[in-house]
Structures are given as C-alpha cells and as structure tokens.
Design a protein that fits this description.
The protein is of the alpha+beta class. Helix content is about 35%, strand content about 30%. The protein has a four-stranded antiparallel β-sheet. A hairpin with a 2-residue loop joins strand 10 (about 150-155) and strand 11.
Length: about 220
C-alpha cells in the first residue's frame, strides 16, 4: 500500500468496469523454446489437429517422413524458432498487460481526434490521453492457462520468405478498470471503443486478429 493511496479515488474519480469479448488475440511476447517444445509434444499426443498439421507441414519442409525419430526433429525445429505468445499472470493464466489496453485507447483517440486540443493546458490528443486515462490493473487474465494453438504464417520481405509463429487464444473475456479525471461524454467513449474494437488487441492486428466487442461498460461512481 502506498502512503497516498487514499487520494487516488479522489484524483481519478471517474471509473468504469469494462469487459471485452476478444475473438482471436495473438501473443507478441517471445516464449521459452523448452516450454513450446513440451506444449507441442503434449498436444500432438492429444491428437490436436492444428498441431498435427503444423508438424506435418514442418516435416514436408524438412523433406522427412513421419516416424518417431523425425517427429522429434519436427517438434524441435518448431520450438527452436522464435515463437511469440502471452504474458502469464501470477495465478498462471495467460494475460495481457494493462498498458496494452491504454496503448489501444491512445491509438483510437488519436485516430478520431488527431488535431484536437484538450483541457486547460490545451494538450494534443495523444499526450492528453496518456496523462489522464489509466488502467490500474497490471496483468489482465484471459481465463485460460494455455493457448488454443500456434499460428504459422508466411512472411515475405525484401530479405526473402520466413515464417512467423504466434500463440493465439479464442473467445476470451478480459475484465479491467478504466480510470480518469476528465469527464468524457458517452458519445466520445462510444466512438473511441468502436474504433478500438475494429483495430483490435494483441499482435498481428494488421492481419485482422484480436478484434473484439465491449460487452460491459459500467460506471462505478
């Protein structure tokens, strides 16, 4: 507890409880290869079709048949590559960070009101939202302890062709709080969330992943 915590709800006296339904967010945090290797083995043993398809595709790339020896080669090949995923909350659940929600709010606000000025200091939109809108939660659990799968996508750059590997989850419902000291209108909040929903949350948003809908937006005070 901080010595001035009693003043926090006085200074930031406008608070909302929010719940999102995020359809297919992708993780963007580099993961430990050993963890990925164990996860792949367990999923392959469970006859997970998506994992089996990924392993089979890797065997084709390696030019090897499917048998126990080459299965190990394929799993090690995948896990040795850079796989991006999610943070983990202290209770073991996959999680996003509160700062990612705040970044999405700032981005949506800047899309809507890039040239507007705010408050008595006449701040620009991005600076004003950075200084006046906060997400108090650090880790926001997603309600699951392991990903639904690992997405493998081909990426073409001027250096050639490579593959991106990203963990993803399906239909998760993160809950968090939004606090501010500025009285935004209902229309301003509504337009901001509509833009944020379309842009999405998490990695690979430019590919259409991580779109969501706000299913709860309740003022707390």
């Amino acid at each position: 507890m901080g010595v001035f915590d009693q003043y926090d709800p006085i200074q930031y006296n406008i608070r909302y409880a929010a719940t999102l339904h995020v359809f297919d967010p992708h993780g963007g945090i580099p993961q430990d290869p050993k963890i990925i290797e164990g996860w792949l083995r367990s999923k392959f043993s469970d006859s997970d079709e998506l994992v089996q398809e990924m392993v089979m595709r890797t065997l084709e790339e390696l030019g090897k048949p499917l048998d126990d020896e080459h299965l190990e080669d394929a799993i090690e090949s995948i896990s040795a590559k850079r796989v991006n995923g999610f943070y983990r909350a202290p209770d073991g659940q996959l999680a996003i960070r509160g700062r990612h929600i705040k970044a999405g709010i700032k981005e949506a606000a800047n899309i809507l009101w890039a040239k507007d000025r705010w408050g008595p200091t006449n701040k620009g939109t991005r600076s004003f939202f950075a200084e006046h809108v906060f997400i108090p939660e650090d880790f926001i659990p997603l309600g699951v302890t392991e990903p639904a799968g690992i997405d493998q996508r081909q990426v073409n750059t001027f250096r050639g062709t490579s593959f991106n590997y990203e963990e993803y989850v399906l239909d998760v419902y993160p809950e968090f709080t939004v606090i501010t000291d500025h009285e935004f209108t209902d229309e301003q909040w509504g337009r901001l969330w509509v833009v944020f929903q379309r842009n999405g949350l998490g990695a690979s948003r430019s590919q259409g992943f991580g779109t969501f809908e706000v299913i709860k937006w309740d003022r707390l005070n």
